[in-house]
Design a protein that fits this description.
Layout lengths: L1 E5 L4 H12 L4 E5 L7 E4 L2 E4 L1 H22 L14
Parallel strand pairs: 1-2
Antiparallel strand pairs: 1-3, 3-4
Length: 85
């Protein structure tokens, strides 16, 4: 389970939360009690710092794009034969 740890009204944390929702990720949000910076827990990995978080998102988006293209419930037309799958 992916966890987003952020302050209640942290602008960057809210942006990340919206991004996760738009990717349709299963995640939970944990509110930080101390004045710690935003971080993400992905399994046993802790991702901190904007650069690392943005890199994690880029990799995740690519992985999801590939996964969803393979598992998509869609039918394709072969452009050479016109045959429907």
């Amino acid at each position: 389970m992916i966890e987003l740890h952020t302050q209640k009204q942290d602008e960057y944390g809210l942006e990340l939360k919206d991004k996760m929702k738009s990717l349709r990720l299963a995640f939970k949000t944990e509110e930080l009690k101390d004045k710690l910076p935003v971080f993400i827990i992905d399994g046993k990995e802790k991702i901190t710092g904007r650069a690392d978080i943005e890199q994690w998102f880029r990799e995740l988006e690519e992985e999801l794009r590939i996964q969803r293209s393979i598992t998509g419930d869609a039918c394709y037309i072969d452009p050479e034969t016109g045959k429907v799958c």
